[in-house]
Amino acid sequence: MTTADPGTTRPLALVTGASSGIGLELARSLARRGYDLVVAAEDAELHAAAAELEREGTTVAAVQVDLTVPGDVERLWDAVVASGRSVDVVALNAGAGVGGAFAETDLAAELGIIQLNCASTVHLAKRAVQAMTARGEGRVLVTSSLAARVPSAHQAVYAGTKAFVHDFAQSIGAELDGSGVTVTAFMPGPTHSEFFDRAGLTDTKLGASDAKDDPAQVAEQAVEALLEGKDHVVTGSLATKVSGALGALTPDRLGARLQGKAAEPGSAPG
Ligand SMILES: NC(=O)c1ccc[n+]([C@@H]2O[C@H](COP(=O)([O-])OP(=O)(O)OC[C@H]3O[C@@H](n4cnc5c(N)ncnc54)[C@H](OP(=O)(O)O)[C@@H]3O)[C@@H](O)[C@H]2O)c1
């Protein structure tokens, strides 16, 4: 980890969930645009990711935190403040899923993803928005999902958390109109990452499908939208965008059933 220089004129970005998948690519995209980074994740692999990001010629501070723990969320923000620098971009991206039938899934795991996906996002957004509104500038990215617009059987709690963060991002974004602070809801469709393995979805049609988007591509599209101050961005291929648009038009219960077929345990072909 390189110590950030408080006297630097380079912009600073905080990215959560930056050790793998979409978050690592968000951090890489910001590094290539000249941002120094504070990156956060739970496991020690974060330090390897930070070393990789430093090769982009940027300064990276890695903060290992369990964002399901409010004290760790605060410790992460304290690390940003301790850098002595204003934070220009905050990407609230860390998140996880739980697949399976709600009657059978583990309650502790589901309460954990509510804490991670929803509570830590609100907690860090509070700190970031207060700091940014005081300065009259800043950009916040909230990783939502296409799942925010379509409920899903067999991912009931996960889909609910994404609907929550999506609405939350849109609501605070509306409050902040004209303030110089923007909030962008980032809506990836299925994207190659560790998400499906961690959520126990590898034996599902959704998890096994190769037709997923490239995390580098979706991150690049998200960072462009973030820096343009867009209110939301649906990322990925044309097929993902079309499926997202159709999903949003589908009646909720039908959408939940259709999505649920792809996420049904054992639905992976062959
Ligand atoms: N992949 C998709 O198809 C897809 C689609 C729509 C939305 N999303 C969203 O995209 C975001 C990134 O997911 P991904 O697909 O890139 O999955 P991923 O590769 O599993 O990355 C998840 C990231 O979150 C971090 N994280 C998980 N639990 C944490 C905790 N308790 N405390 C701190 N950090 C934690 C992980 O770090 P550790 O390894 O240290 O735990 C990792 O850096 C999530 O919000 C997800 O809901 C993904």
Describe this structure in words.
Strand 4 (89-92), helix 4 and strand 5 form a beta-alpha-beta unit. With 270 residues, the protein is of the alpha/beta class. The model has no long low-confidence stretch (mean pLDDT 96). 47% of the residues lie in helices and 13% in strands. The chain is globular and about 55 Å long. Helix 1 (21-32) crosses helix 8. It has a seven-stranded parallel beta sheet, sandwiched between helices. Residues 17-23, 41-43, 45-46, 65-68, 93-96, 116, 143, 145, 188, 190-191, 193-195, 198 line the site of NADP nicotinamide-adenine-dinucleotide phosphate (NAP).
Task: Please describe the topology of this protein.
Blueprint: E1 12-16, H1 21-32, E2 36-41, H2 45-54, E3 60-64, H3 70-82, E4 89-92, H4 107-135, E5 138-143, H5 156-175, E6 181-187, H6 195-198, H7 205-208, H8 215-227, E7 232-234, H9 238-249, H10 252-262
